[in-house]
Fold these 3 entries.
Entry 1:
Amino acid sequence: MGFFTEGDAPIAWRGPMATKALDKMLIGTAWGQLDVLVIDMPPGTGDAQITLGQRLPLSGAVVVSTPQDVALLDARRGAQMFRAVRVPLLGLVDNMAAFCCPKCGHEEAIFGAGGVQRAAEDLGLEVLGQVPLEVAVRVQSDEGVPVVVANPDAPSSKAYVRIATRVWEKLRTSESGGGPAAARGGPTISVSE
């Protein structure tokens, strides 16, 4: 939505307005031929997330969280909400898992360690990967060039590629194996080689 606003103008919409905008972007947009459409949602269990889960035959959801307890509360609620609207959960991602000092190599779990793993075990899910906390991710995001493009050898780039590969594998298995996404009438995903 940020692309449709100017400057610092807020998007102060109540649920029905946000839902209408979401419908317009998802259903009223000619997306063309897609292999995958990734929808990045803010944390929580609000109208937008519920609407998305109820109106579209989603192939799956990935829940992303930092490892500290307060963030994991939202992640757990989000996972349970997707289950309630019958969206298959593909797994959890441990974001900002640790900071590795570029000068000395010391690794520090700034937001704690093990929280996402414990949550995944409690929810019966897989941890799809751990993304390190790197300054390069922020710098490249501010410049509008993804870190995987600007520096494919960065640890965060490698983590993103591993996670994307794992999600792709899970989507292919789910679709071709008649898994939960196929049962819900999700899109057919095919790969041209």
Entry 2:
Amino acid sequence: MLYICVCVQEEAAPMDEPNKPRHGSMDKDMAELVIPSLPLETRCPPFPLRQYGGFWMPEPFLPGMAAARAGFEPRPSDVLLASFPKSGTTWLKALAFATVHRADHPPRSLDHPLRRRNPHDCVDFLESVFLRPPAEDALAALPSPRVIATHMPCSLLPERVTADDAGCKVVYICRDPKDALISMWLFTKKTLAAAAMDDGNPPKQYTLEEALELFCDGRCVGGPQWHHVVGYWEASRTRPEKVLFLRYEDMLRDPVGNVRKLAEFTGRAFSEKEEAAGVAEEIVELCSIDALKNMEVNKNGRQEYVNNESFFRKGVAGDWENHMTPAMAARLDKIVEDALRGSGFAFGDTSEST
């Protein structure tokens, strides 16, 4: 999913206060009282964005976020996959689902769910589930271990997830800002084209220059991107047993090693028998971009807002060089460098990876 805005102020107060209601009334309060008061950005298609808690989030999903924060009851065995949009989300969903559920669904099985369903159909977004009440019933019906995803920043996650005694695990994937921008821009153009085809209208133009300007201002889905990343990076350093921080570029270089890391972190390390049988390698093969894009469901299937094929492009690092001028890249690099100064985090620095 890609969450997809004229600003009246810079910060927004948190939506849910002490003694907050359960999510049914929270949805109503959000829609009628809170959302209209949040800063608005209308230039980022396809959805308007509202600034909430320092981040620009898609307006249609804010009630789901508030409801999830109020009503989500994590289980100790839950695995929550977090990401900034277009940072390897689809790949992480596939890898995590195949790894966590390999006992019930061996990766070589011809009937594996990932051979019949898109990864976004196998692993839903938490905030989307809470837009479809009764969410608690839908989540309760999922057998453990549940694998769920989110684009929410770390600071906006439900307190039951971030508490020191939280049992569930969080896995975050980050990506170089330039590649995240290019992937987001190209994906947005596809969503606009799909919407135009549905409506019988010509697609709205959305140039890279427009996307870069907004991205540099942090006015994009989940933005600022670098703050989204640093929030989870800091959480992984203070709670390494609960938050695993992965880098997309590292995963491309060593997918099998990172699948082993994912399995161990979630409490499902590969046995000696599985290692001898090459199960980790089979999972990587099943979830490779070439394998997934050639699945019939991903060639011809569709999500509500875009065709499934749009989720599988190149799956490489450094593709920004084919789209951005050196001046564009230098501008974004400088903004990110200045924003991260003093944080201890740097994109491309793998010395802190765990």
Entry 3:
Amino acid sequence: MPRSLDARHERFDLNAPFRISRGVKTAIDVVTVTITEGSHAGHGEGVPYPRYGESVEASLEQVHAVRSAIEGGADRLQLLELMPAGAARNAVDCALWDLQARRSGISVAEATGLTQRRPIATAMTVSLDTAPNMARAAAHLKDVPLLKVKVDERDPLTQIRAVRSEAPKPRLIVDPNESWTLDLVERLQTDLATLGVDLLEQPLPANADEGLAGLRSAVPIAADESAHVAGDVERLANRYQFVNLKLDKTGGLTAALAFADAAEAAGLGLMTGCMVSTSLSIAPALLLAQRCTFADLDGPVWLKRDRPGGIREENGRLHAPERGFWGDL
């Protein structure tokens, strides 16, 4: 049966500025892919990220470049050869998963063996701001199970202490987004442990993380910007204790599952994360989160308007989208 592929740019406004060490955003731009075959349609979303040299325009070009192959019947495994890892392939891959579920009558959860529809504790993010503002934001999140605090290199201890002063109970991820130096990582070890930090995420620039090799860190360190695909595992294994699997980096759920297998085989712990995105990005990541120790999937919480029927966040826990939203019958 013939297929058709549609790819388009959509923009979603945020309900508050989202600040990290690299900048601030007030809206997100996503690429939405729909693949239709007969009466069935599968949907997927990717969030092009400038940090990786991506743009909406370039991502749309990548999708259009494989249109004839996809419309001719190319499957998810062939897609791995047709497109590079990144947001564009993520959108196509997840649309193919969704289409497969609707055509076969077998949900993506069943197909992957990740069938338990339980709420997932997600990191709720305190974005980078002045210490008093970060404390105020943390006060509203003091009862969630997991917090993530965005910091930079200027005064991270003050930032972390401000959050901890108002939210002493949640587990805590600290994310400098590549802004620290190795000297700063080493100097803050005791303080991070004292403040009850459970995970330090990508403290060093991805191209300068060799200094982490052999470091006896007081808290586990997770690779984010350094970790993209399964082929990275050998390089990461002696520098990090966790890897952050983001579908926009791996290029879809298919590659993310392979990356998870490789990481676990190398003794690395798993985390799954997201860009600020809609629930169409989070639905497949929510399945992957069932295999992970840490999940950071609060992207849709930052939106003024999410897609109808998407995930529901309740006190730091994500509930699966409505039946039929993505990957379900």
